Each structure stands twice: as structure tokens, then as C-alpha cells.
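Look over what follows to help learners.
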Amino acid sequence: MAWIVLFVAGLLEVGWAIGLKYTEGFSRLGPSVLTVLAMVASLGLLGIALKSLPVGTAYAIWTGVGTVGTALLGMVLFGESTAALRLACIGLIVAGITGLKLVTPD
């Protein structure tokens, strides 16, 4: 269950990272409120996952999920680069996330 909570926390990290773009420096109320709520929920769920997962592994996976998701949404939503090397580097992050999950006991 901790892994699912951690994954959802990572998805919420994607939400607040992308949300930051829409807040326009926290000058737009709606996006700002949603972004802050996503931040709080993401950190809260990370804290719950840390009750049973090693901190180094959980934090690396949380940031990795956030990084990959944010990079991919940046490409889709904001037309950011989809260069092969960039995609390969994102693939390396995914490989790292997978490796950490595989070597960490449940």
C-alpha cells in the first residue's frame, strides 16, 4: 500500500509543478489555491509512505515520478523539446525508479 501512496504523491508533485506555471507567480487565485493544495497533499502522502519505506528510496522515487511526469507534460502542454537525448535521459530516470523499487523490500 505504501508504494501506491508514494506513486500518488509523485503524481501530485507533477500536478503542483505544472500548476506553478499556471499560477503566473501566484498572481492567479484559482491555480494558486489548487497548486498549494497539491503541494500539501503530495508532501502529506510522502510522509505517510515514509512510515514503512526507506527515506532515501521513497524520496528518490517521489522526485523521479515528479520529474518524469513534469517533463512529459511540459512536452505535451508547453511544446518543450522532445529531442531523442532528452527522451533517453527521461528513460534513465524511469530505469532508476524501477531499479529502486525492485531492490527495496516491501
